[in-house]
Design goal:
The model has no long low-confidence stretch (mean pLDDT 96). The chain starts with a helix and ends with a helix. It is 76% helix and 0% strand. It is built from 6 helices and no strands.
Length: 166
């Protein structure tokens, strides 16, 4: 079980990439999100988010069980979960409007940059979750950062398409 937990937590070793393993984890979520959306649209995308969260929580518990460090840098499954949440508005929009999700490429860039901003700066609830110092906090800070980023994507899309009319 420890090997499986390590594979999940590090996203098949991506968490060992340096520098900035969290950024690498977020980058891995982009093609993963595209593929999940391509296969099953928004419903499968939501299922992937939930599954990633719960698999990540389990793997993080196993990986940190006998460790003094509550959030080792090689654990990046939390970044994958958060980045998928940040991409969720794009999956929904493409799915509900029958668009090719790659047409929404500016949103992908915004989702990535906003997620990394909130994950790194840890404002308000993101920082609160991070300070829990437990496996749930490891996952939850990125989930909250992903929600903040998703809201930012929605606001930016509204400004772009509503105010600018594009």
């Amino acid at each position: 079980m420890t090997r499986l937990a390590q594979l999940i937590a590090t996203v098949c070793g991506v968490g060992y990439l340096r520098p900035a393993p969290g950024t690498w984890g977020s980058l891995v979520a982009l093609p993963l999100g595209w593929l999940v959306h391509l296969i099953g649209g928004f419903p499968l995308f939501l299922l992937a988010i939930v599954a990633t969260f719960f698999k990540g929580l389990w793997a993080t518990r196993v990986m940190t069980r006998e460790s003094e460090e509550h959030d080792p840098s090689e654990i990046v499954i939390d970044e994958v979960a958060g980045q998928l949440i940040a991409l969720a508005p794009l999956s929904y929009s493409a799915w509900s409007m029958g668009l090719n999700i790659t047409q929404l490429w500016p949103g992908w860039i915004a989702a990535f940059l906003l997620f990394r901003l909130f994950d790194i700066s840890k404002p308000w609830l993101v920082g609160w979750a991070d300070r829990r110092n437990d496996p749930l906090g490891v996952m939850l800070d990125d989930v909250i950062a992903g929600v903040f980023a998703a809201l930012g994507v929605i606001v930016l899309a509204g400004l772009w398409h509503g105010v600018m009319g594009w």
